[in-house]
Amino acid sequence: MNFINKCTGSGCATKPTVIDTDFKKIKAFICDGINNTYAAVIAKASGRNTFAALLGTYATYEDSKTVRDPLMKVEGFSTFKTFYDLHFSMKLDPAGLGYGTYSPSFSC
After folding, report:
1. Contact indicator for 64, 77 with CB cutoff of 8 Å
2. How many helices (H) and strands (E) does the chain have?
3. Which residue among 3, 10, 80, 103 has its CA within the 20 to 30 Å range from the CA of 89?
4. Cα distances (angstroms) measured from residue 31 to each of 37, 44, 77
């Protein structure tokens, strides 16, 4: 894996560092990230599902020229959405805006 830069207290190296790991560790790393999002914390504290962009995705406004009252929507990222569904059983929001559903009972 070449995408992680080596960082120390004095900053990050400019050249990527190769690390040796397996998918189980990567999945645990992502799971920690999910559990530390505002959406996951709010879901657990409130006992209700919350909806927010999945890690690695973002929302943009719909085009105001074609939509009267534009909403924020996550468009694209189909591989991300498939990954979260397949490996973390995270579904998309029922409104169809492309947000992930953060469940209060989520666990990896």
Report:
1. no
2. 3, 6
3. 3
4. 10, 15, 18
Closest listed residue to residue 53, CA positions, set 104, 103, 108, 98: 98
pLDDT, averaged per 10 consecutive residues of the chain (108 residues), comes to 54 67 90 95 97 95 85 93 95 95 93
Residue 3: both structure tokens together: 């995408």
Q: By the 8 A CB rule, do 92 and 76 touch?
A: no
What global pTM score does this model have? 0.77
Q: What tokens does 6 get? A: 């080596």
CA distance 93 to 85: 12
State the pLDDT at residue 13.
62
Write the single-letter amino acid at 79.
T
